[in-house]
Every structure is written in C-alpha cells, then in structure tokens.
Amino acid sequence: MPTNSDLFPVLIFSPGANSGANYHSDSFEDLASHGYIVLAIDHSAAGGVVFDGKVRYTSEFNAGSAAEANPVLADRVQDFKFVLDD
After folding, report:
1. Distance between CA 12 and CA 40 in Å, rounded?
2. Mean pLDDT value of segment 19-46
3. Pick the residue with more confidence: 86 or 80?
4. Is the dihedral of CA 29, 30, 32, 38 positive or negative?
5. How many CB atoms lie within 10 A of CB 24?
6. Which pairing describes strands 49-51 and 10-13: parallel, antiparallel, or unpaired?
7. CA 36 to chain centroid
8. What is the model's pLDDT at position 70?
9. Is the CB of residue 53 less than 8 Å from the CB of residue 39?
10. Arithmetic mean of pLDDT, 46-73
11. Which backbone phi and psi does 21 adopt, to 5 degrees?
12. Which residue would you say has higher pLDDT here, 54 or 5?
C-alpha cells in the first residue's frame, strides 16, 4: 500500500470480446481495496452498434476472421486513445 496518499497505481481494464466491464466489478472492488484505481472501458463494439439502419458492429464476431475482427480491434484502439488522452 502506498504511504503517500497522492500516489495510487492506475489499471486500465479492457474486457474480453463480447463482455461488459460490469461482469468484473468484484475484481475491481478487490483491487480498489488494495489501493488501485481501475478504469474500465465498455467498448461500443461489445454491445453492437446500429447507425442509420445499418449494422456497424455486431457483438458477435469471428476472432479468426480478419474481416470481422479488425473493425472490432480498431474500435478498441480508439477507445484506449480516448481514455488516455482525457
């Protein structure tokens, strides 16, 4: 446990494919009880996105297919950039 109250380790959590961060709240609470700050990202692709009547992302994708997995990965990278920039 840090002795200086201004210093706390920060963990950025990205849930696995098709999983929301809320499923891991018990782990976050345990980490927080040990002095960690946990930032959990709920990726938009995990829930699927429909815009203008067209499916942009679906919560179901084949991780073995680059055509299906690459847009999901690109979305996650953008989410991380957003979190780290703010």
Report:
1. 6
2. 85
3. 80
4. negative
5. 16
6. unpaired
7. 17
8. 86
9. no
10. 72
11. -60, -30
12. 54
